[in-house]
Amino acid sequence: MRKLQWKIIMLFFLSGALTLAILFITQQLMRLIGKEMWRESWVQSLFYVNRSLQNFFGFPVVATVIGILLFIGIVMLLSQGTIRQINQLMLGTKRLARGELDEEIVVSSSDELGQMAVQINQMAAQLKLSLAEERTAVQSKNELISNVSHDLRTPLTSIIGYLRLVNEDQYKDEVELRYYTDIAYDKSLRLGRLVNDLFEYTRMGYSPINRADINLVELLGQLAVDFSLPGQTDQVKVVFTPSTEKIMISSDGDKLMRTFENLLANAVRHGKDAGRVDLNVARDSVHAIVQVINYGSPIPQHAIPHLFERFYRVDESRTTQTGGSGLGLAIVKAIIDAHHGTIHVTSNTEMTTFEVRLPLQTVQ
């Protein structure tokens, strides 16, 4: 990979050959048309000076100087393309240093200069992408802080307000006192759930995935049993339907358990009127497929693309009443993405389905 080096060598070789050719042609022309010019006095004077210099230095000085100047001129002429490419590289690096990342360096050659231009363009594109990601991260952080502040302040304000009434003895009797403390207690539980969900969500950004071989059928079966225990799900029955007894995946069991706990809790919470939630698991050639289906009210179509955004709630009042933090589905999406899986939601008047696809083990 020394194309530029060979280009320089060929440039000097070609310039030397052209210089010799021009000098030879000029000499022959002078011999043909210069007989009359030798009679001129100024030509004879130049010829005398040239011979004197040649006798003094021992070589044809005038011819040598002319040859050198001619060689330099030819080199400069033939190297214009390479010089132009170097100038473009210099301008490109100056633009890059100033933060101007939109304009690419155009160098059409395939030598080292062309490769350098390609690398600088790639570096500029990567830097532009990094800056965009940094701006997005800063904006996301600011939005997270704003949303967290709002969601923490709302229950905290209620807790402080009711406890202030209790502290100042502003209640009629013990029944009203109990009413105030019950509200404060419920708000504190909601505040605790929000803090726990927020911690879990932020931890997903740096918590590693500790993979192990897991039988997904057993994991989901245990979850279905837990959710079907009396008093756990307001008499909602979780019906588990596996297509096979064994579907092996490589995943973090604790995080995956949290994922399907969130999905089942969400399905039970919003589909409890039907009294049933279906949990299905199957596989195709490359994926384990898990479906969590509830038969409650449908999710509006305009809301489906936003379900996995932080603090997004389809029904603010209903979510507040049921204690949702708005982070559960965001946690689900983060965990599934970390496992290189996908999640898809469909909803109509009959059912709402959350479908998760996770990569199977290479060898079963």
SSE arrangement:
Blueprint: H1 3-33, H2 41-57, H3 61-78, H4 80-97, H5 112-167, H6 174-203, E1 212-215, H7 216-227, E2 237-242, E3 248-251, H8 253-271, E4 276-283, E5 287-294, H9 316-322, H10 328-338, E6 342-347, E7 352-359
Parallel strand pairs: 2-4
Antiparallel strand pairs: 1-3, 4-5, 5-7, 6-7
Helix pairs in contact: 1-3, 4-5, 5-6, 7-8, 8-10
General description of the model:
There is one protein chain. This protein has 364 residues and is an alpha+beta fold. It folds into three domains: 3-122, no CATH class; 139-203, Helix Hairpins (Orthogonal Bundle); 213-359, Histidine kinase-like ATPase, C-terminal domain (Heat Shock Protein 90, 2-Layer Sandwich), CATH 3.30.565. The protein is 60% helix and 12% strand. It is built from ten helices and seven strands. It has helices spanning 3-33, 41-57, 61-78, 80-97, 112-167, 174-203, 216-227, 253-271, 316-322, 328-338; strands spanning 212-215, 237-242, 248-251, 276-283, 287-294, 342-347, 352-359. Strands 2-4-5-7-6 form a five-stranded mixed sheet, with helices on one face. It has a two-stranded antiparallel sheet with strand order 1-3. A hairpin with a 4-residue loop joins strand 6 and strand 7. The longest helix has 56 residues, at 112-167. The radius of gyration is 40 Å and the shape is elongated. The model is unreliable at 316-323 (pLDDT under 50).
Here the CATH topology of the largest domain equals: Heat Shock Protein 90
Overall 3D shape: elongated
What is the H-and-E element order? HHHHHHEHEEHEEHHEE
Strand residue percentage = 5-15%
CATH homologous superfamily of the largest domain, by name?
Histidine kinase-like ATPase, C-terminal domain
Can you name the CATH architecture of the largest domain? 2-Layer Sandwich
- Largest β sheet strand count, sense and barrel closure: 5 strands, mixed
Structural class: alpha+beta
Instruction: Count every helix, treating DSSP H or I runs of 4 or more residues as helices.
Output: 10
Task: Provide the gyration radius in Å.
Answer: 40 Å
**Total beta strand runs:** 7
Which ranges are low-confidence, i.e. pLDDT below 50, for 5 or more consecutive residues? Answer: 316-323
CATH class of the largest domain: Alpha Beta
User: Taking all residues together, what is the mean pLDDT?
Assistant: 77
